Amino acid sequence: MAQKERVLLVHNHYKIPGGEDTAAENERRLLEEHGHSVFLYTRSNREMESFSAVQKLLLPFTSIFSLRTYREVKKIISEKKIDIIHVHNTLNLISPSVYYAAFACRKPVVQTIHNFRLLCPGATFLRKGKVCEDCVEKGLGCAVRHGCYRNSRAQTLMSVIILKIHRMLGTYRRLFYICLTDFNREKLLLINNKGKEQIRKERIFVKPNFVQLPPAEPVSPKEQYLYIGRLEELKGIRILLEAWKEFPQKKLLLCGSGPMEAWVRAYVKKHHMDQVLLLGQCEREKVLKLLAESKGLIVPSICYEGQPMVILESYAAGTPVIASDLGNAGNMVEPGRTGVKFACGDAKSLREAVMELEEQKTWDTRAVYEEKYTAEKNYIRLREIYAEIRTVHSVTSNTLRDAQKSQKDAISR
């Protein structure tokens, strides 16, 4: 049996925890449970809250290349005899310098793509509530003009500079990639715009996220539906509430908080929607219980999404999903088998989808979970990817060394 890789997992936590943190932690546990030696290199953007004036001044430069990251990662690779470096997020503190530490040590590095940041500085392909791919078609300057990253032209400019510099340096050509879906893979390949190859398709692999959940205890679904996620524009919360005004007898539970929470409360009060309950942030155990008890999970996103973990959890719980027909959420739903799709941004279509779901009594959601999204299936795929990456990297490295040797021999003669 092939020796199990010694893996360095690299992840820069955002200030607000999210799905990327969960995915990175799940992968760490998965590898350790299967006997891999796993080492972590992590930073948190919360560190910036205590930065000195000098550190804040230098942040635009260290976001492009952090000498601290480069030195620390090189040391870990050398001392721990790392076989492969697996990166989840580098923004803002780790920076792409982690890749160069791997290059310097002649070790393969694979980047999991959780969002669309390599093509869109805002990471969502969304602007003013609508899908936007202008940065692919017209150039990254579009993002600066519209302040797509955090509604700030200055911060967007910094994101664009990072992308521009590392595209020019050819950084992204030297990486391997794991995309969560085929949809994400096709979007990533858009980086090869107008004949300029940044990433070879042979270096992109597809492996979904996973959740590790036992079968839920059989229960009779209550007359309730569930929304789980941030209360914000891109998640489609406006469309959801607009649709639910026409369902006074159907309970809707909202699990989550976010920038639109005050708006949601005001809307619910204005329209006398007593059937809508705001539960705030819920513990995972409670979320899973609510999923098992609900008639359906609703994912009304108006953006492409990465790969919503909550859909996997819903399938594991045996609960069907009603999702907008856009991007990954829509692609993950198999009509008649795991749920119903509706026209993105259309409240009437969403209401019709709810009625369609209620007409069907049985679903194959748990079976689909067992087919695609279990931890064991995920581990098998991850090992396949690691093995192929190491093989390709070994061949490439040997070819490069032979070319360099031949060049030196020619010069010496």
Word description of this protein:
It is a single chain. This protein has 413 residues and is of the alpha/beta class. The chain has 2 domains: 6-114 and 170-210 and 377-412, Rossmann fold (3-Layer(aba) Sandwich); 224-371, Glycogen Phosphorylase B (Rossmann fold, 3-Layer(aba) Sandwich). The chain has 16 helices and 14 strands. The chain has helices spanning 19-33, 53-62, 67-79, 97-104, 134-137, 141-146, 153-168, 182-188, 237-244, 261-270, 284-293, 309-317, 327-332, 347-359, 365-372, 375-412; strands at 6-13, 37-44, 84-89, 109-113, 126-127, 130-131, 176-179, 204-206, 224-228, 251-255, 276-280, 296-299, 321-324, 339-342. The strands form 3 sheets. The chain has a 6-stranded parallel β-sheet, sandwiched between helices. Strands 11-10-9-12-13-14 form a 6-stranded parallel β-sheet, with helices on both faces. A two-stranded antiparallel ribbon has the order 5-6. α12 (309-317) links the parallel β12 and β13. 40% of the residues are buried.
Strand content: 15-25%
N/C terminus separation = 45 Å
Q: Number of DSSP helices?
A: 16
**What is the ordering of alpha helices and beta strands?**
EHEHHEHEEEHHHEHEEHEHEHEHEHEHHH
CATH topology of the largest domain: Rossmann fold
Q: What is the tally of beta strands?
A: 14
The largest sheet is: 6 strands, parallel
Strand order of the largest sheet: 2-1-3-4-7-8
The total tally of domains equals: 2
